[in-house]
């Protein structure tokens, strides 16, 4: 059996302008077109040709009389036109196959686009405008609106649509397929759920939505590849769905009741093709996947058990109802001789939340929706939502207004229903004659049950039930349904897929436009912020940090040098001044040893005191410099810098262990008590200190040697210019050895040996006594001088002055390094913070560039894909009048 063997039917095609005019006509005019004025239309199937007569097909819309005459005349006419019809059928089939392949390719490419969007969404969450259902306020998942409020950790305020448009300088995008609604409650315990909606959470919801679309598109591909057609009958509770299905079958198969009875999906299938001509029910349990070849996947029941099975929704998810319809091909929709049709009776909307969700989810598997609405109740909210959702894919939805005979004011009822359909499915409204039908299904079904007294023969109702009542309204509905499914297969089977792809591509384009604009704006804004604020601030803190660091380091170095020099001078001066005068009271010769020890201890203490004095000066200097460093920090960082810290200089140098007393040799020798010298002798005689210092300096060998000319040139410079050769000669004679010897000889005449003998002993005794007295009297001065020289010599060997100067200056450096480190650490913290801000904004700019480029490229791919879809002309041969 070929998939699409019908010949081309030249119907009166309504162009686009006419369709628009038609949509604007009065409802009364549409109603007049809908209400049939002629006899019911019929479609005549011709066995052997697998096609419908072209002239007869035209009567499906125009309502003309069906072809009459003998079958032989009709077949002769058909045979005369068969070559042309076969050619048209082949062309039509070729176009159908090409369009199906093109749609398959477009579905695969669209899935790739969605997967690319998913990948981008995982790396950089996509901005998505979200709509809150409770008060229809808008909250944009963007850096300018939503994220800014989230980061401020403040109460999020809803933005109205006008405010949002003003902020973004663009219209709020609207989605058909990728729309995500957030239903928020207003209770005090949960009304502030908006605070939990951040960019990542919304992106996560978008990810789920995209994943659903991939699954939907793959099911859509399977659907257009399937040679059969699924007719999905749904509607509100107690709208008469099962009754309508029975009317199409001309048999009371599905249970009917004034109360909702169908709670399990019932799929009616031609048993002659699917189940070896056996009428029965295959009940598929929840969780199983139906496979007719595997009996473990279902349970078999007779047809008379169907009325009990439809209530058992807790056990079964699907009932496969296999029927035999012995009516002729042109009468039976199920057994039409062309394609396999599966009629699905769905549970009513609002039956329960689970069943309603299942009804919505089955749209991806069906080709045609027949929505049954009660003329008494019109469209409920669930019905409106279902039709609006179906309109995203299916441009045309069959609307069956059942129980129309019960309405008294039929015109008013039609007006209200058509007005509702106009908003829900505009294309269905434009083609109201084709897709909107007001019927009463009860009159179409033979109510005679097996053994019913109403049956003339009082026999069970068989499958050859052809004696249905004449109902032009229902006949026109059935003819339109047959024509749309069989004769306009490209529109009924392929057009929904094309329409859905166009809608989802439009949504992707809208999403791309929004994100490209936001990322471009973000890039511009962040570049401006980086160049005018973050970058200069970062460079300024770097420069300031380097400058302050150099200043503080220089301050520390100068302070340490100052402390070192002060300590060195203080200790050296103390050591150099040792022995200049007695520092311990002399108690007499009998306390000579005690005096020596006390003098020695006093000298060591004076040295230690000089070290302590140096430390005190270092503390004072360090205190001032610490304050100066803190001031640097307060001026450049924060007025509160180290305000909680107090510098305690008394804690400095507390770990010093000066063991100089152990390092110096403290033994006392007899020679330590005597230190004769010319200076001390003259002082002992009683000469004034000034004369003694002049005499010592004058006769100092060093001074004498320093005054001797060290070269002939300097000697020449010292000789007076007026000195003559005669003067030099005369002086030379005076200074000759002979002259000197002559003078000594003359003086010797006065010193005789006898004189020497007389004065030698007294002079010797006098000198000896004077010397002894001088040495004993000079002990208080000689001992300090001698001890000072010994201590000084040892201190020089120990390098005592340098060691203490280094120690004191090092501790000052350690103390000063603490506030210096605090200043530099705070600067480094500020630098790190500024660097992180700079790095973060650079990453935002980089991501904005990548995302902007991605969405720019995505728009190009979407355009190519959209152009390819537009070129798939499904209505060139098949169209809706």
TrEMBL record:
Superkingdom to which the source organism belongs: Eukaryota
Composition-biased stretches (Low complexity): 459-472
Subcellular location field: Mitochondrion outer membrane
Catalysed reaction, written as an equation: GTP + H2O = GDP + phosphate + H(+)
Gene3D superfamilies hit by this protein: P-loop containing nucleotide triphosphate hydrolases (3.40.50.300)
Dynamin-type G domain sequence ranges: 225-515
First-listed, main subcellular location of the protein, grouped into a coarse class: mitochondrion
One of the GO BP terms on file: mitochondrion localization
Residue ranges, annotated region (Disordered): 1-25, 444-474
Gene Ontology molecular function: any one: GTPase activity
InterPro entries in the record: Dynamin_N (IPR045063), G_DYNAMIN_dom (IPR030381), Mitofusin_fam (IPR027094), P-loop_NTPase (IPR027417)
Keywords, comma-separated and alphabetical: Coiled coil, GTP-binding, Hydrolase, Membrane, Mitochondrion, Mitochondrion outer membrane, Nucleotide-binding, Transmembrane, Transmembrane helix
Protein name: Dynamin-type G domain-containing protein
């Amino acid at each position: 059996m070929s998939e699409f063997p019908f010949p081309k039917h030249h119907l009166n095609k309504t162009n686009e302008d006419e369709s628009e005019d038609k949509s604007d006509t009065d409802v009364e005019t549409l109603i007049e077109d809908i209400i049939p004025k002629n006899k019911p239309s019929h479609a005549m199937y011709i066995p052997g040709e697998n096609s419908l007569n072209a002239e007869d097909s035209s009567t499906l819309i125009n309502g003309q009389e069906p072809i009459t005459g003998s079958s032989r005349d009709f077949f002769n006419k058909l045979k005369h036109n068969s070559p042309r019809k076969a050619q048209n059928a082949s062309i039509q089939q070729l176009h159908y196959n090409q369009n199906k392949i093109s749609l398959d390719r477009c579905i695969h490419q669209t899935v790739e686009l969605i997967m690319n969007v998913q990948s981008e969404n995982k790396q950089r969450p996509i901005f998505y405008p979200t709509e809150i259902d409770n008060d229809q306020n808008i909250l944009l998942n963007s850096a300018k609106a939503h994220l800014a409020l989230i980061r401020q950790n403040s109460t999020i305020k809803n933005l109205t649509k006008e405010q949002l448009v003003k902020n973004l300088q663009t219209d709020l995008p609207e989605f058909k397929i990728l729309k995500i609604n957030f239903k928020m409650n207003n209770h005090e315990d949960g009304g502030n759920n908006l605070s939990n909606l951040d960019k990542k959470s919304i992106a996560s919801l978008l990810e789920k939505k995209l994943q659903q679309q991939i699954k939907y598109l793959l099911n859509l591909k399977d659907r257009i590849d399937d040679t059969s057609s699924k007719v999905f009958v749904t509607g509100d509770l107690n709208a008469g769905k099962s009754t309508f299905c029975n009317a199409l079958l001309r048999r009371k198969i599905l249970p009917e009741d004034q109360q909702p009875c169908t709670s399990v999906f019932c799929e009616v299938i031609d048993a002659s093709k699917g189940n070896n001509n056996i009428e029965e029910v295959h009940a598929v349990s929840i969780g199983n996947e139906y496979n007719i070849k595997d009996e473990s996947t279902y349970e078999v029941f007779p047809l008379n058990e169907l009325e009990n099975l439809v209530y058992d929704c807790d056990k079964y998810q699907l009932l496969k109802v296999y029927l035999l319809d012995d009516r002729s091909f042109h009468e039976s929709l199920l057994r039409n001789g062309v394609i396999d049709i599966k009629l699905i009776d769905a549970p009513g909307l609002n039956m329960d939340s689970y069943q309603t969700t299942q009804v919505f989810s089955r749209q991806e598997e069906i080709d045609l929706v027949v929505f049954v609405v009660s003329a008494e109740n019109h469209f409920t909210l669930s019905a409106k939502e279902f039709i609006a959702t179906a309109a995203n894919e299916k441009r045309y939805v069959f609307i069956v207004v059942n129980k129309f005979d019960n309405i008294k004011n039929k015109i008013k009822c039609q007006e209200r229903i058509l007005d509702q359909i106009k908003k829900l499915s505009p294309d269905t409204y434009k083609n109201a004659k084709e897709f909107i039908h007001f019927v009463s299904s009860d009159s179409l079904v033979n109510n005679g049950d097996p053994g019913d007294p109403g049956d003339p023969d009082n026999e069970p109702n068989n499958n050859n039930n052809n004696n249905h009542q004449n109902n032009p309204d229902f006949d026109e509905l059935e003819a339109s349904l047959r024509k749309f499914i069989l004769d306009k297969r490209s529109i009924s089977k392929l057009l929904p897929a094309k329409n859905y792809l166009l809608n989802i591509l439009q949504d992707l384009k809208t999403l791309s436009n929004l994100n490209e604009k936001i990322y471009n704006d973000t890039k511009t804004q962040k570049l401006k912020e980086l160049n005018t604020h973050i970058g200069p601030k970062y460079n300024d803190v770097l420069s300031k940090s380097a400058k302050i660091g150099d200043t503080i380091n220089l301050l520390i170095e100068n302070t340490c040098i100052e402390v070192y020099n002060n300590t060195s001078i203080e200790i050296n001066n103390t050591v150099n001044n040792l022995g200049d005068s007695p520092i311990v009271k002399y108690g007499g010769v009998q306390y000579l040893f005690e005096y020596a020890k006390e003098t020695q201890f006093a000298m060591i203490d004076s040295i230690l005191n000089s070290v302590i004095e140096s430390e005190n000066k270092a503390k004072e200097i360090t205190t001032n410099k610490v304050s100066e460093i803190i001031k640097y920090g307060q001026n450049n960082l924060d007025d509160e810098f180290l305000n909680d810290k107090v510098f305690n200089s008394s804690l400095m140098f507390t770990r010093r262990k000066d063991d100089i007393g152990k390092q110096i040799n403290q033994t006392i020798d007899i020679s330590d008590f005597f230190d004769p010298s010319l200076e001390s002798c003259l002082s002992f005689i009683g000469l004034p200190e000034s004369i003694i210092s002049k005499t010592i300096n004058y006769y100092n060998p060093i001074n004498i040697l320093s005054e001797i000319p060290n070269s002939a040139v300097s000697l020449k410079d010292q000789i007076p210019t007026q000195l003559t050769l005669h003067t030099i000669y005369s002086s030379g004679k005076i200074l000759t050895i002979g002259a000197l010897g002559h003078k000594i000889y003359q003086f010797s005449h006065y010193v005789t040996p006898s004189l020497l003998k007389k004065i030698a002993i007294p002079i010797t005794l006098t000198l000896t006594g004077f010397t002894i007295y001088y040495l004993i009297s000079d002990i208080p001065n000689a001992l300090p001088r001698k001890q000072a020289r010994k201590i000084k010599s040892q201190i020089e060997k120990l390098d005592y002055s340098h060691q203490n100067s280094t120690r004191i200056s090092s501790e000052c450096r350690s103390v000063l390094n603490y506030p210096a480190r605090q200043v530099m650490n705070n600067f480094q913290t500020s630098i790190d913070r500024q660097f992180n801000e700079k790095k973060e904004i650079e990453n935002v700019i980089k991501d904005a560039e990548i995302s902007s480029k991605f969405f720019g490229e995505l728009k190009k791919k979407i355009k190519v894909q959209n152009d390819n879809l537009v070129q798939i002309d499904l209505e060139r041969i098949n169209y809706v009048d």
